[in-house]
Amino acid sequence: QEVYQYLLVETRDKVGLVTLNRPKALNALCSDLFSELNTVMAKFDEDQSIGAVVITGSEKAFAAGADIKEMRDSNYIDNYKTNFLGHWTQISKARKPVIAAVNGFALGGGCELAMMCDIIYAGTKAKFGQPEIKLGTIPGAGGTQRLTHAIGKSKAMEMVLTGSWNLNAEEAEKAGLVSKVFPPEQLVDEAVKTANVIAQHSQPMVQMAKEAVNQAYELSLASGLLYERRLFHSTFGTHDQREGMKAFVEKRTPKFEHK
Ligand code: CAA
To answer: What is the DSSP string of 141-162?
Structure first.
């Protein structure tokens, strides 16, 4: 097992579990932390024994945002030349499903990282916010885009423009940002449990389903429906579709080839 400076990495059955581990800075997402996260994600994406990934933080903070101390002195041209934060988008390109298990603060880039994941579970003390405006800047990794898609314009505007209106776990669930809320100490186990359910299915089907859902954010309805239907057609070219439907008829658990 590799050793990382800012992450704890383990596997539980078919699930990769990544814990952000920079407690002194409330998991502020410095550049090296994100590079490590990208490395781990790429490894899990390649590892055929892994079916899904869970990303979590500590009970106090999932992540308190981009590292303010690291970026405070950077300037426009350097940001442009290095495409600052560009490397963050790799998480959203992961092919395997990723669940964010959010306890405590998910602020700024922390909220944005959670939203790059496919499913968000929250602990009862979670807090989601986009406080960048208070720092004299704006969200830079999806806070104006993914948040608006997730919770609608009025709530997203209020969060982004005031910087101080945060959603607690219950509000986040009601708004559709979060799918389930758990007591903090159960959160990671519940996320791993769901990830293991996902990992029991045919992996190519899981990935196609993820791709199709994600197209809902990119395409018109007609194009999205066509994309979905063509992928659906293609599943009939696989062993796992044959086996899944045969098993249903024979009233038994399917034995998927690609698990
Ligand atoms: N960057 C760097 N360091 C951070 C940090 C961040 N985003 N958030 C917290 N820390 C550090 C603090 O500076 C402090 O370090 P020291 O002990 O060396 O002073 C340590 O973590 C503990 O933090 P606090 O003492 O502030 O803890 P608290 O419990 O009093 O407050 C908090 C918690 C409300 C989350 C507060 O830390 C906070 O407001 N953090 C900043 C949140 C923020 O503005 N995030 C947005 C960042 S910008 C961004 O993310 C841009 C983007 O879109 C990508």
So the answer is: SSTTTHHHHHH-HHHHHHHHHH
* Report field, pTM of the whole predicted structure over 0.95: yes
Residue in this structure with the two tokens 């086996």, named with its chain if needed: 243
Q: Is 46 among the residues known to form the active site?
A: no
Among residues 100, 108, 114, 132, the one annotated as catalytic is: 132
Helix, strand, coil abundance in the chain, percent, nearest 5: 50, 15, 35
Measured on CA atoms in the order 165, 83, 210, 240, is the torsion positive or negative? Answer: negative
Contact 143, 85 (CB under 8 A): no
* DSSP-derived pairing of the beta strands 167-168 and 127-129: antiparallel
Residue 1 has pLDDT above 70, yes or no: no
Nearest to residue 137, comparing CAs of 165, 109, 102, 166? 109
The finding on whether 140 has its CB within 6 A of some atom of ligand 1 is yes
In this structure, the dihedral spanned by the alpha carbons of residues 6, 63, 120 and 140, taken in order and rounded to 10 degrees, is -110
pLDDT band at 115 (very low <50, low <70, confident <90, very high): very high
Q: Which amino acid is at 82?
A: T
